[in-house]
Amino acid sequence: MSNDQDNLETKLSDAKAVAGGMLSKNKHVSASGTTAVEVAKTGSIKDLILWLLAAAVLIGATLVNQYLPGYWQPANDVWVRIGIIVALVVFALVCLALTHQGRAFKILLKDAAVELRRVTWPGKDETFQYTWQVIVVIAIAGFFIWLLDNFFNWFVGIFIG
What we know:
Elements: H1 2-23, H2 36-41, H3 45-71, H4 78-97, H5 100-118, H6 124-160
Helix pairs in contact: 3-4
């Protein structure tokens, strides 16, 4: 009996520790074990090179439409230019995804997906009730703003003539 009670107490303390970790806002850790902020703050020469390459490619994508047809005959077709621009933008996004900040963004998206699964969405009746409450409050606020507008128009009209 003592082993069972010790086992239950151990499980209870483990569950409390896990629940405490889930409820604390300061130490939110993703499924991979590192926070997105920690990953984003790390950097390397590879990150710098990838950021510069992505910036250069995006600048090049903005110049394709204007300058490429003068140097390359197939670029006179609008669909070829669109394809090149899309390819350059995708290449820049891939470069950015390979940086530490790109990894941090992926961690952030995964954490956001986990949080969205925890959201309790309102039902049809709650949505209908809250919608009417918002409409009534907007109507009341609009009425008071209309009254203030008329008052200030009258007040300014006294001085202007």
